[in-house]
Structures are given as structure tokens and as C-alpha cells.
Amino acid sequence: SGQTPMKNGEVVEGGIVEQSRLAIQNCVDIMTEAGYSLADVVHVKVILTDARYFQSFNKVFREFFGENPPARICCVADLVVDCKVEVDVTCYNATC
Fold this sequence. Notes:
By secondary structure, the protein is an alpha+beta fold.
């Protein structure tokens, strides 16, 4: 399932930048525990609650994925949790 910007069961305060960083970091933490890294990410699905958040989210996305990011889809929708972003990653590593 996708990761929201939650820490200790609560949505982190702040705007789209802070929430984007935590949502992606939550994905990284889960991937690391499973033996994957950002280099293994082949697809990212992003759900934003407002299309105007895209540019700010994209800056954070580049902080994590650099200049050669994986394939990505971004859509705008309401989320079940009261936050601004949800991130879902798909990883692949032939050695895992």
C-alpha cells in the first residue's frame, strides 16, 4: 500500500514539502527493511490532493531520485487520511 506522511500514527504537520519528504522516507524505510534501495525502484505512483502541489513535490522527488528518476505517474484525488500526498513504489532487483 502507499505511504502517507505519518509518523507514530499521526500525519506530520507542515506543507507539501514536509509531507512529501516523510512519505518518500517512509517508503525508503520499508524498502531498506526488505533489502531494497532507491536504485531498485522501477515505478512510483503519487497521489496529490491538489494539482498545485506538483512542482513542490517534484523538487522533493528529485532530492531522493536525482536526475534519472524511475517511471512515475501522478494523479490528483482525495485521500482517506487527511494529508496532502501518498507515495507508492514498486521495486525490482534480480538478486533479491
